[in-house]
Amino acid sequence: MKQVDGGVCAVKGVRASGIKFGKMGLAVIAAEGSAAGVFTRNKIIAAPLIVTRENLSNNGNGRLAAVIANSGNANAFTGEQGITDAKKMAHILAEQLNVPEELVAVASTGVIGRKLDVDWISEHVGEVVEALDSTPDSSNAAVRAIMTTDLVEKESAVELESGVRIGGIAKGSGMIEPNMGTMLSFIYTDASLPADVLEKCLKQSVDKSFNMIVVDGDTSTNDIVLLTATGASSVEPQVEEFQMGLDHVTVDLAKMIARDGEGATKLIEAQVKGAKTENDARIAAKAIVRSPLVKSAVFGKDPNWGRVIAAVGYSGADIDQDKISLTFASGDDIVLLVECGNIQDSSTGVLSSLENIMAQDEIIIMVDIGLGEQSAIAWGCDLTYDYVKINADYTT
Prior knowledge:
The chain is of the alpha+beta class and 396 residues long. The chain has 2 domains: 2-259, L-amino peptidase D-ALA esterase/amidase (4-Layer Sandwich); 267-392, Ubiquitin-like (UB roll).
């Protein structure tokens, strides 16, 4: 497996484009094939997700021909009008591409509780469709179109040994704690795989990637991940090989989201092992990257490691404080702080290494619970002054 450039347009059979005017953006991705989706677990579900889920389930065999996504307005908590507007988005694109309306997926991101400006979308969709292309720039244009508070574009693509390619784009920076967070991700492959296989692979991949990131602990109303297989390579890869490639792309995108958390300056990776169950490992890892105290300490370069121990303790995982071990690391620096419940001596050299770790852009926190064989990894970011500033005046 090797990394390749081009985002979704690295995949055969995919065309993309997008425009961005201020906070308003519109992206279109055209590629027909079998498809599957994963959606928010928030009980307030945005209208575009309702329409997309219905289209995927009602078109007979889990297929999509295109995605239309807007930024600037979430079209969430907008009642029946929101459903009407989301369906109109699908209808507008279906007419432009001459495809059945039920093969169009709809996604939105932005402010919740405001009526969607469908007229703006209708006025600009022709411009976006006319610019559809299969170049790396086209994929990048689609990414930029769906960005809100994101500071960097998020794209990833790989080529498997079988020749199959998998490429994805994503947006997400705040209101992030999947189940999923305020994130949109559209992933494509030129593999020849049916919808049921895609669905199984996607759910497994999302569980170890997007569902393991935390920026602020808020779960959005609009989260969506779609996976479409164009079949353009005519290759049916081994499921294990495909899963490995898909996992690489989703983890890559998930880490980009965590690193680009609103106001973030550092990426935090929490590695937990030695848990009795996989769920224990997952909830312990997410508790670390969710903790405001841990996140604030990382921002302040303060090695206040007791906050990590506390987070693991309240996570709900089965813990024995006499068996837990804790290590901080970054690059070549690694410092063992606690071993089997015993605090380690802090010599001058150790403290110097710890200070160097806390000054880095990426910090790895490793916890060995010491009770079993299960492990998990979660990603998050520090909590900064800028996070408060960004969200204090988001709509004003």
